[in-house]
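Contributing: when you submit paired examples, paste them exactly as shown. First protein:
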Amino acid sequence: MADTLGISEAQILGLFIASVFWGMLLITFVQTIRYLLWDSDAKGGQFKRLSTINWSMLVVALLLMALSTFDVSLGLMHSIEAFIFYTGPGGSTARFTGLTDWVNVLKTCNVVFGKVISDGVLIFRCWAVCNHNILIVVFPILLWMGYLGTGIFVIYLEASAGNPRVLLTGGMSKITPSITAGWTMSLTNNIITTGIIVYRIWRVDKSNALYGIQTQESATQGSRSLFGSKKRQRTKLQNIIRIVIESGMMYTTTAFITFITFVVGSNSFYPTSDAELQILAIAFNLIIIRISTRPSGSGDYSTSVQSASQTFPLQKFSSATKGTVDTVPTQESLSIY
């Protein structure tokens, strides 16, 4: 069945959707920079000392913002060239179907390296949350390297394909399998690493509840609902689990929809892929913002462990967990978000 969405309409729709999400990204980016550079706990508020700034997260936020902005700029320029400056045969359709056009190649580069950065950060978070256990992230690292390799190979094939008037979703025998394999590895990597992070934090929170180690936030009385029943108060780690799952699902769902549109060869691949890079950066920023807005004093596990150790020795806690990695995470491991 023929695609009812033409390539010209798809590109315009993609530019609109990307612009909307870029506006959302700009708001979250400003807030992310604020929490990474500004110490609101200090009296009157002040910039953090250089030694306390999380430089790795700051660099990633800047890179994702730069790639997303560049992608929207490329889409705008591509549309202007296709509808205004291009006067050759075929009109805008011929301009958009130039597979080896440098704009199309650069947009592919943006998506590939944006996902490489995002997946790399996710693996790093998984490694840090799991007490720097490299064995846990061996398979995700292999998937990450596989996606990086296939991504570079796709860029090479796209740039050296000559000048065929086909779309990226046109089912080319060389490019399609590589894109499909790379996208599958990236999606699998996201699902596995997010699952490990959530499981690890859940195990720690479960162990804390079992041995009476609670944060001040979890020990307080729950608030009343609209009908008078008491709502269960979540611990800080339970809130982190919710944040990680929600942000992960937001990006993974978008990536899965984009993958499906590519597999079926629909032109709706272009609007969804334009939105994917923006949502990827938004999801990264939201994790930092939502965890940074949690009261630092109410959910600080380092404080709660010190008070809990007076009644339950940490040596007994370690032996009770029977040698598992379910130890209480330090503030450093939580700050990676």
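Second protein:
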Amino acid sequence: MRYLRSFILILVITALAACNSSERQPAKAEKPGSVKATKAFVKEFGPAPSVEKGTAYAFVIYFPSAKQPGKVLPFPFFSFDEASLKKVALAKLIGGLGDLKSYQGEIAQPFPAGARLLDLQQSGGSVTAVFSKELAAARTDLGLVNAVVLTLKQFEGVGQVALQVEGAPATTDKQAQKADESVVLPLAPPRLLSVTGMKEKGAATVEEVDAFFDRPVQIKELRLLDADGKPFEGEIFHSVFDMAGVLKPKNPAKFSAGLPVQVRWNVTDKIGRNSSGQTEMMLEVREH
């Protein structure tokens, strides 16, 4: 199974098998993996993709829009750690999406530098998100409030959300309670995010080249070509969670950071939105 590695969230947990020293136990057939998706995920991105092993969780993080203040843009995320879903979702929301050229100028970053989530307190269906004091100046930003509230309310058992800044009382204001699906912007067709070569730490060459998209997609066509338009040789696979097309290159030594790579694609997301095109990107190389 090929693991999706970029800004997309994956927390890997390892199961340790117990053994009986006094007698040999017969091998048991391994259960197929499953993905449990929130209703918000299914609405925005369709049925969750499958995994070979374990239980994964698919959810949405709503990022504030830069073009339409108060509105939010949904992005898909995945995790294998059920216990920390809410905290991880808010941590990623605070951190933002980084420098994604495909969304340049579209995602706002209302969280001030140094702002962080200190605690999540839940009592019944009410959740209070406690932030560090750096958030005080941005506490009333409508996009920030809507993003926090909708990200948390998608999870089962959360009916009301309050925001609290360190050292101040919690407030369940009207602004937070008005956050609903009406502030979610409709999604455009899938977008190509980056082309990244992945290699083992310390390795001389890449082991795979990933063309990342902004959501799970079905790949109808994906070709990676050099600057002269000649296709790179190798097999193409889907990544785990269907977020990328993965080239297993026949000649991995050709791929180095900054290499111009032309990407030709034709993909469809799980709701039927189609995207096709060709563009050139500079190859990023990352170790894992």
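If you have annotations for the second protein, write them as plain sentences, like these:
Residues 192-287 form a domain with the Immunoglobulin-like fold (CATH 2.60.40.1220).
Confidence is low (pLDDT under 50) at residues 1-27.
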